[in-house]
Amino acid sequence: MAEPQAERPRLCVFPDLSRPQSAADIETWCQPHRKIFGEFSSSSFGDFQTVFDQPQEYIMELTFNQAAKGVNKEFTVNIMDTCERCNGKGNEPGTKVQHCHYCGGSGMETINTGPFVMRSTCRRCGGRGSIIITPCVVCRGAGQAKQKKRVMVPVPAGVEDGQTVRMPVGKREIFITFRVQKSPVFRRDGADIHSDLFISIAQALLGGTARAQGLYETINLTIPPGTQTDQKIRMGGKGIPRINSYGYGDHYIHIKIRVPKRLTSRQQNLILSYAEDETDVEGTVNGVTLTSSGKRSTGN
Predict the structure, then answer these.
(1) What pTM was estimated for this model as a whole?
(2) Each residue's pLDDT tens digit, 51-72
(3) Which domain CATH number covers 153?
């Protein structure tokens, strides 16, 4: 099956200007002429080469800590860049190229369309001004070849999942989109981070100290007496750097009270004794009954 041929530019047919023309007639023959200007123009509107120069996109996996603190990470890319064998010239090293007689070596050809003269890229030499007789064995005359390169990517501290950066590689540019893994310890909210800290019942009631894992170091906390579950302790400036501003976010530590599933006999007796003195209990407590005098008793 024959391959479909690319559509050639339509040349407009100019009307007989010796007779009066209506506005509709003029618009009819001007439309294809505008199309030709768009196809052969050297401006950005008619330059289709930019389609092939779009930067390639890559995905980079990061851990939570790498994204939060920043890291220099080595990365392998396959990119179309200047052929290293022919240095982008397209011909095999040591061979000569032939002067293009079609455009006179200018790389541009002239198209006459009635009263208009337009210049476009030479169809014979592709704008080079010369004809390659012996193409480069690597790039086959294109002047560019796919190359594998290892680059060092400076990941800025504070990047978020899905953010994209643009980076030059050789004479090209690439887009790198970051995919940040979830942390088993921290939860992120912009530049702020959140984590949980489990404390005992005794620490919650009487207060004390505890150690929490921070993003940069271990944090020593003072637990005030009467601490409630889900109470938050704010550590100012211990969060993630603000990527588009100055300073750091905060680290919020959420207190979780760990309730033991089993008690020793002594612990159970002490808890029952405490339960006898409780006055703000809604409902009942196993092992504690209400006496006729209104006092709570363990029944011992």
Answers:
(1) 0.65
(2) 445 678 889 999 999 999 999 9
(3) 2.60.260.20
